[in-house]
Design a protein that fits this description.
By secondary structure, the protein is of the alpha+beta class. It is built from 13 helices and 38 strands. Helices cover 23% and strands 28% of the residues. A 5-stranded antiparallel β-sheet has the order 3-4-5-7-6.
């Protein structure tokens, strides 16, 4: 019995190739020898079964140790290369073979594109020879029933649309496991390509927008939401732009395409509940949050596309999650901040289209009306009755003029090496009676001590002259931190290192200086900023001495203002900003109390403006103040990007976004006809 079991074990070992060949041979020889010995010296009954099992093992041993030919229908031989499937070459790329048997009724010509889930081929329809585009899902998605339903639903949605600015879909179907969609072939380039190459100007961008708006109006009219408006899904056909100057866009040149995630009131999303569908850079806030959306979501996405067309950059940047967060919580800079050639009307239109609240977005009919009435460029002048002048930390447009609503009116000066460029953002700026700008730009280079730091620019921003070299002599500066211009166009410049104020005429000729280091009454400890009133009197914020001092136009000390902490507490309140209006009122920022006090010419505190800290705002920097021609007060914390606006009652009525860190802010208000005589507001 033991021999029977051993024989069976040997056979199984051969069958499954579990033993090395040399071990198998030794076992077989030993087993045969033992069986022959039993046959010679024992009974046949004891040796017959082992001999039979040994013979069976010997028969199995030969095929187990040879390389038999494998059935190629099951698997190719490891020592033989698999037969290559036929391929066709398209633009230097090896493509899987597609012929008339793959998609009945079409001859595939070449592959023209590939997305994340499908490829597009140019093909000829056999019935009439028309060139079409065949959209075919990639093989890895064919087994996904949900994806295939969505693919055919796209075709069904698109077949319902008939508009010259929408890519037509002819038919869709399947052959076995191969699914296809036959569409109008668009020989052209995507809007994405035009934006990247910078070929679109503002007038052409407006015309493209008109066409897309009309396409969307048609889509929405049949109850469909596109959900994926982006430059890559907007095509411009070759020849659609004429060669005339300026070029003209044909009415049918723009084609909106790709309805892969389109949906409507009666169509399910075919996605998980709450899933985010679309391209994050262009998706609406409600879409980014996975909420229910309607046609207003397409308006938002189209606004972001228009934003990119006119500025050359997307409104939001970063990774997927970062962009989703921005879409929900952040507002991008108005496009006019990035391109001054954009008209205010277009700027306002785009910002309305990308409003976070869908109810604030305009209807497509209103968008089309605004586009048809818009003016691509408008003259930039200085006709504002009051304007906010700011210098910002930015490489472009470091000197910006805003209206009293915070809209960009004009900008000038870039950081660079050009003739009219600044080497750094101006520390301070002032305007003379003729609209010229004086800007203080600190720069010291070893070996270039004669470099001038005070620049005069004409109203258009062109540099007209420079003065004020590095040094401690008359007309020289160590660190010119602030400047102001008097009614007779004298220029006063405060040097925070020497604590002196130097006075120049309008052509940069040094006249005199005053001040110096000290404890007050004509001297300073850490002076921060300077102002001049309508009578030519000069005011200096003496930060280290907690006071504001006033001097005559010739630099003679007159008086000062300061506030005690309290009747029972010694010391003075910290003052971090001040300004004047054309009625002789003085506004002083009390940093210790978190408010701005309005002081009348009779030295009475008439009003207090509360300065509540804003989120992320540093409260230990200077607060720039200014008053417009209507009496509204503006306050901007240096280093921040917001300007508070207060009405005549002291109520905060608006917060204006500057979209770049503010270095300094002034309000340039045209004075009224009523003159006043500024008297001493306080006495020692």
């Amino acid at each position: 019995m033991l021999l029977v079991f051993l024989g069976l074990a040997l056979i199984l070992a051969f069958v499954f190739n579990k033993l090395p060949s040399w071990v198998s041979y030794l076992m077989l020889i030993g087993f045969l020898t033992f069986s022959v010995w039993l046959s010679a010296f024992g009974s046949f009954e004891r040796s017959g079964v082992p001999l039979l099992l040994a013979a069976m093992a010997l028969g199995l041993l030969i095929p187990a140790t040879q390389n038999g030919k494998q059935n190629e229908k099951i698997a190719p031989s490891r020592n033989k290369k698999a037969k290559a499937k036929p391929t066709m070459k398209v633009k230097g790329e090896a493509l899987p073979s597609l012929n008339s048997m793959d998609v009945p009724g079409y001859d595939v010509l070449e592959k023209v594109g590939s997305g994340g889930m499908a490829s597009v081929y140019r093909a000829k329809r056999q019935s009439d020879g028309q060139i079409v585009a065949l959209k075919i899902p990639m093989e890895q998605y064919v087994a996904d029933a949900k994806f295939i339903r969505r693919f055919h639903r796209e075709a069904e949605v698109a077949q319902r649309l008939d508009h010259e600015n929408i890519v037509r879909t002819y038919e869709h179907g399947s052959v076995g496991i191969k699914h296809y969609m036959a569409m109008e072939y668009v020989d052209g380039r995507s809007l994405e390509g035009y934006i990247e190459s910078g070929e679109l100007n503002i007038p052409l961008g407006i015309e493209v927008m008109k066409a897309v708006v009309k396409a969307l109006q048609h889509i929405h009219s049949v109850g469909i939401i596109h959900r994926d408006i982006k430059p890559a899904n907007i095509m411009i056909i070759n020849g659609g732009l004429t060669s005339k100057e300026p070029p003209v866009l044909r009415s049918d040149a723009v084609k909106l395409m790709d309805f892969g995630i389109a949906g409507g009131k009666v169509l399910s999303r075919l996605t998980m509940t709450g899933a985010r569908v679309g391209t994050p850079v262009y998706m609406s806030p409600e879409q980014a949050r996975g909420l229910k959306i309607d046609h207003r979501s397409d308006v938002y996405s189209l606004g972001l596309v228009f934003y990119e067309m006119l500025t050359g950059q997307t409104a939001f940047k970063g990774g997927y999650e970062a962009i989703v967060h921005q879409q929900i919580f952040q507002t991008p800079p108005p496009p006019r901040q990035l391109n001054l050639a954009i008209s205010k009307q277009l700027d306002n239109l785009i910002m309305q289209m990308i409003s976070k609240d869908p109810s604030d977005r305009p209807k497509l009919s209103d968008v089309l009306t605004s586009l048809e009435e818009s003016v691509a460029e408008e003259p930039v002048g200085s006709d504002l009755p009051s304007r906010i002048v700011i210098t910002v930390s930015s490489r472009q447009g470091v000197l910006r003029i805003l209206d009293t609503e915070g809209s960009l009116h004009s900008s000038m000066g870039n950081i660079g090496l050009g003739e009219d460029a600044f080497s750094a953002a101006p520390l301070s700026v002032a305007v003379d009676s003729k609209g010229n700008y004086f800007a203080a730009v600190f720069e010291y280079r070893v070996g270039q001590e004669n470099h001038q730091m005070i620049h005069k620019l004409d109203p258009s921003g062109k540099l007209s002259m420079s003065f004020g070299a590095y040094g401690m002599g008359s007309g020289e500066f160590l660190y010119p931190i602030a400047l102001a211009v008097s009614p007779k166009d004298w220029v006063y410049i405060l040097d925070s290192e020497t604590n002196f104020v130097q006075c120049f005429d309008n052509q940069g000729k040094f006249l005199f200086n005053f001040g110096g280091r000290g404890e007050g009454k004509g001297t300073f400890n850490d002076p921060r900023t300077i102002k001049v009133d309508a009578q030519g009197n000069v005011y200096v914020l003496d930060y280290g001495n907690h006071q504001v001092q006033r001097f005559s136009a010739e630099g003679n000390y007159q008086t000062r203002w300061a506030f005690k902490l309290s009747a029972n507490q010694p010391g003075m309140r910290v003052l971090d900003g001040f300004t004047l209006d054309d009625q002789g009122n003085l506004y002083i920022s009390d940093a210790s109390g978190g408010k701005v006090r309005k002081i009348s010419p009779e030295s009475k505190v008439e009003l207090s403006y509360s300065i509540e800290p804003l989120q992320g705002e540093a409260m230990d920097t200077l607060l720039d103040l200014g008053v417009d021609d209507k009496g509204y007060l503006y306050a901007s914390r240096r280093g921040g990007h917001l300007i508070r606006k207060y009405d005549l009652s002291g109520r905060l009525v608006d917060t204006l976004e500057t979209y770049a860190p503010v270095v300094q802010m002034i309000v340039d208000a045209k004075q009224g006809s009523s003159a006043f005589q500024l008297s001493s507001l306080a006495s020692d």
